[in-house]
Amino acid sequence: MTGGHYIALSGGVGGAKLALGLTKILSPDALTIVANTGDDFVHMGLHISPDLDTLLYNLAGLANRSVGWGREDESWNFMAVLRQISGECWFQLGDKDLALHVERTQRLTNGETLSAVTADVAGSFGIEHKIIPMSDDPVRTMVETPDGELSFQHYFVRDKCQPAVTGFRFDGIDQASPSPGFLAALKRPDLKGIIICPSNPFVSIDPIFALPGLAGLLREGLVPIVAVSPIVGGKAIKGPAAKMMAELGMPPTALAIAQHYQDVIDGLVIDHQDQRIIPDIKRINMHVCSAQTVMKNDADKQRLAGQVLNFIKDLPASKISASKISVRKGSA
Ligand code: FO1
Predict the structure, then answer these.
(1) Where does the chain have alpha helices with state H?
(2) With a 6 A CB cut-off, is 294 part of the ligand 1 pocket?
(3) 153 phi and psi angles, rounded to 5 deg
(4) How many helices (H) and strands (E) does the chain have?
(5) Does residue 295 sit in helix, strand or coil?
(6) How far is the CA of 280 from the centre of ligand 1 (A)?
(7) CA nearest ligand 1 atom 4, residue
(8) I need a surface site. Which of 57, 144, 185, 288 has the fewest CB within 10 A?
(9) Which of 8, 256, 224 is nearest to 132 (CA)?
(10) How close is the Cα of 63 to the center of ligand 1, in Å?
(11) Which fold has domain 5-41+127-327?
(12) 156: Cβ below 6 Å to ligand 1?
């Protein structure tokens, strides 16, 4: 693997799989994983950071691999008593998971940054790779529906993604800055590429790109940006991405993903199942390659990570079309 540094942008479940694959190939100094924090919320007085925690648990080998969030070998005594005393039970907090939320809340209340707390927890879990929040400032994804706005976790967990979405708002984004670790990675002279993991584009990736100043930093870096489509064969592997696309009037296809990211990315990795749309993606001036993007085990994750890195290496910055550079010169 030639040297250089890569940034991976990730939400929860799907993104964490590719992030894990990348850690099997890239050394800790060659990779920075940036997690969406738009899903964060304060629940029963506790600051919960679902995408950061999904990444932490996946990289520490502690994740509940079947459910996709939380820890394996969890116990549920806290929830059992909470139910008994008629507490809020729509959001499941395992006993071991709870310790992380209590400790994080305590340290944030004492004035520590989310980056600092995350770095310490990662170290305690034996994780050597950098997992950092997109921002240390509060950003909260609000889901717009015909009946008004919902906080993300109310939409996703309490209401089980049932409400039709009409749009999204990232509350706090105008006052938020990219986290120090994110800024440092973007400014590294050896930065070779940015990888958008197969997470939900609207609620896991768009909040990251919405950070003020990021477009300008992407222009300065001027490195290839590649995304892995979270839509395979017309549906999302997990989560509400395809349902959201349909509700937003977009066909739930990898081509629609290419169009959604069109002004930002230089290349898209799609699944072999979607090879027939390769000409359509090339027609919108985007590089494309197909791979097995459905990751069922660690070997799949590592293989896909290798294919993404090979793809991104073949996209020298000079291939970034003028239109993208102008967009990256965007107002932000
Ligand atoms: N998702 C659920 O569908 N139900 C839950 O009860 C739930 C609890 C939970 C606790 C901690 C945590 O870090 C994540 C949790 N999630 C739960 C997943 C979470 O809502 C999603 O991972 C993200 O917000 C979307 O990726």
Answers:
(1) 13-25, 50-59, 77-84, 95-109, 114-124, 152-153, 180-186, 206-209, 214-221, 241-247, 254-260, 278-283, 298-313, 322-328
(2) no
(3) -70, -30
(4) 14, 14
(5) coil
(6) 35
(7) 157
(8) 144
(9) 8
(10) 12
(11) Rossmann fold (3.40.50)
(12) yes
Q: Which residue has the least CA distance to atom 16 on ligand 1?
A: 69
Count how many Cα atoms sit within 13 Å of the Cα of residue 246 in the half-sphere of its side chain. Answer: 11
Q: How far apart (Å, rounded) are the C-alpha atoms in residues 261 and 284?
A: 11
Q: Is 125 in the pocket of ligand 1 (CB under 6 A)?
A: no
Residue 116 CA to residue 63 CA, distance in Å, equals: 22
Q: Whose CA is nearest to atom 2 of ligand 1?
A: 157
Q: In the structure encoding, which two tokens stand for residue 306, read together?
A: 């290798």
For ligand 1, pick from 101, 151, 152, 157 the residue to mutate: most ligand atoms within 8 Å of CB. 157
211: its two tokens: 């950070």
* pLDDT per residue as tens digits for the range 131-179: 999 999 999 999 999 999 999 999 999 999 999 999 999 999 999 999 9
Q: How far apart are CA 287 and CA 164, in angstroms?
A: 33
Nearest CA-CA partner of 160 in 83, 250, 239: 239
Closest CA to 240 of 195, 292, 202: 202
Q: Judge if the beta carbon of residue 78 lies within 6 A of ligand 1.
A: no
Distance 51 CA to ligand 1 centre (A): 9
pTM for the full predicted model: 0.95
Give per-residue pLDDT as tens, 46-99.
Answer: 999 999 999 999 999 999 988 989 999 999 999 999 999 999 999 999 999 999
Name 48's bridge partners. 41
**Residue 40 CB–ligand 1 contact under 6 Å:** no
- C-alpha 315/C-alpha 4 separation (Å) is 14
Q: How far is the CA of 21 from the centre of ligand 1 (A)?
A: 22
What phi and psi values does residue 312 have, to the nearest 5 degrees? -70, -30
In the chain, where are the structural domains located? 5-41+127-327
d(CA 250, CA 85) in angstroms, rounded, equals 44
